[in-house]
Protein: ABC transporter ATP-binding protein
Organism: Ideonella lacteola
Amino acid sequence: DLRPSLLTIESIEVVYHGVIGALRGVSLAVPRHSIAALLGANGAGKSTTLKAASGLLAGERGEVIKGRIAYDGEDIAGLPPHLLVQRGLAQVLEGRRCFASLSVEENLLIGGHLRHRTATQLRRALDLIYTRFPRLPLIRRSAAGLASGGEQQMIAIGRALMSEPRMVLLDEPSMGLAPIVVSDIFDAVRALNQQDGVTFLLAEQNATQALRIADHGHVLENGRVLSHGTSSALMARDDIKRFYLGES
Ligand code: ATP
């Protein structure tokens, strides 16, 4: 891929509580305007890679002890999440936490406060979210706690989009959702990428769905990148099919 890289991770090693091994030298590059998938089993290091890039390790007593993380050509290792959001790098954590008693729209508006935005920019972001997730305007005034799991995932992604990011780090959006709902969410991610130019790094155990929309995939195992390639090349490999795509 000849597009310049928006996020570059070079040989990072991550420790939690001073204990080595969470990441043992992970490198990957996410080209501008692409979708990259981070695949692998439970505990392989997908979430840790996203947290390293989004400034979220500190809260879990994790630390990048080696390597380099660059966003848009600048070193970002150690920067806190709010400064990254201000530069256009947003994240959606695993588990889609919503404020249950606030309305869907209030949950979205909270995301706009992380980056200085004018009223026009907020309106534009909200319109885009409602276009890409047409379920949300239908329930915008009801409490987020009453929304389905899929709708809550849409709210979580929407909240990140309120800062009009250039890149979103998205952790396990399919978790606990029915396949049809997962398809809807992944279709929306693809539209955000293709129509709106948002770059994504997507961590997923559901490799089949992730590779369907991703340009590239990186397979992690035990804190290392086991293999990487274009989605079509990975999907054609027998070992990948057997271990990650549920085929035999
Ligand atoms: P999952 O899908 O379960 O989130 P993952 O591929 O995202 O899996 P990570 O959560 O990144 O994997 O975990 C990588 C390694 O780091 C694992 O060995 C895990 O036990 C360890 N780890 C993750 N978070 C912490 C933490 N807060 N404290 C200590 N160790 C952690």
